Amino acid sequence: MSHAAIKVLGLTKTFALTEHGGGPVSLLAALRTGKSEGRVREVRALEQISLDIVQGERVGIIGPNGAGKTTLLSILTGLMPATSGTVDVVGDVHAMLSIGAVLRDDLTGRENIDLDGAIHGRSRAEIDAVRQEIIDFTELGEFIDRPVRTYSSGMKARLAFSMGAFIEPDILIIDETLSVGDYFFSQKASKKMAEVAAGGRIVIVVAHGLKAIVQMCSRCLWMDHGRIMMDDDPKTVVAAYEQSIREADEKTLMKKFGQSASTRSDRGDGGEVTGVSLIQDDKDQGAALAAMHPLEVRVAGTLRKPVGRCRILLSIVRVDGRSVWRQDSREAGLDLPASGSFEARVAMDPFILGADLYQLDVDLSDERGRLDSTTRVFEVVDVEGQNGGKPLLLYSPEIRGRVITAAST
Asked: Which residues contact 378 (CB under 8 A, 6 or more apart)?
């Protein structure tokens, strides 16, 4: 086996498209129709990408649609030329950019295995040695001797992945193939990918399933608008990417409420609200919450020199302006500290709000009035569906708090 390596320097890819979405510029099409091609605009799919991938790395690539992920893989595999920059790939590449590009529908699963091995330069003896392992790994049973056109998408994913993993190319590239497989096969695939990389090979995976990237990969690239935004360990990159999505979603919802992205109001003395989290399933969900699932609102703050007793006023307003819920921390029996850091928690179990857009306002005040305020906007998604119309908040949630650090006297 050769020492697999990928080196990319200053890679840029641009496409020329007609101005009104007419697809790629085609002189032949213009001659046939007798019409001019119209104005042309340049779309830059990749811009100044530089990276090195060495043997043994399992690299996950994440990012929104249109980020340039598939374009990058297409260039790495030689399916598409670069506009500028250099790409140096050392080693045999097996790419699964789409299931249909790997499998031949008229051939059986077994015949596809033999053909794929031959394409990648494996001898008959080498193919014979791994054929049964591939078949066993796919768990396709008698379907292995049936035409691939009779397979479901999940069955095709099993066969496509198994062929690439057991033929053992120097570089294995997978673009969303595993997304159509079931959970248990994905777990098997993850372990197999680790084995492939441990043998000194390179594995590159593009997936929207962020949890799978964390489980399968040793390194992660976050791409957006043709650029690499972040290159680090998977947990760090995925966390940053999720935070970016939450912030973008919340800005979009704020616009629907006719508000700007700035959601704070601070008197400048006495104290401040340092954070508001919407927790479902032990995670800050940002701008999307599930109806009928337990929710905990966490409000963190600091009191410096308040005038008299302080309180937190919480309220939820629907996008149509209807007030849904309002609660004063004092009335709920929550006493804030005279000074120092605190955290208040509002437990809503279940979270009974109908699918809609809502605004959560949090005000911190003392005897002189408001000290600080902040707003969170969120959308409630009701995936299960409820009977009897659109529910509002129908109960009094539990509110509690604790002193985090008391101010020194």
From this structure: 250, 253, 278, 285, 286, 287, 288, 289, 357, 358, 360
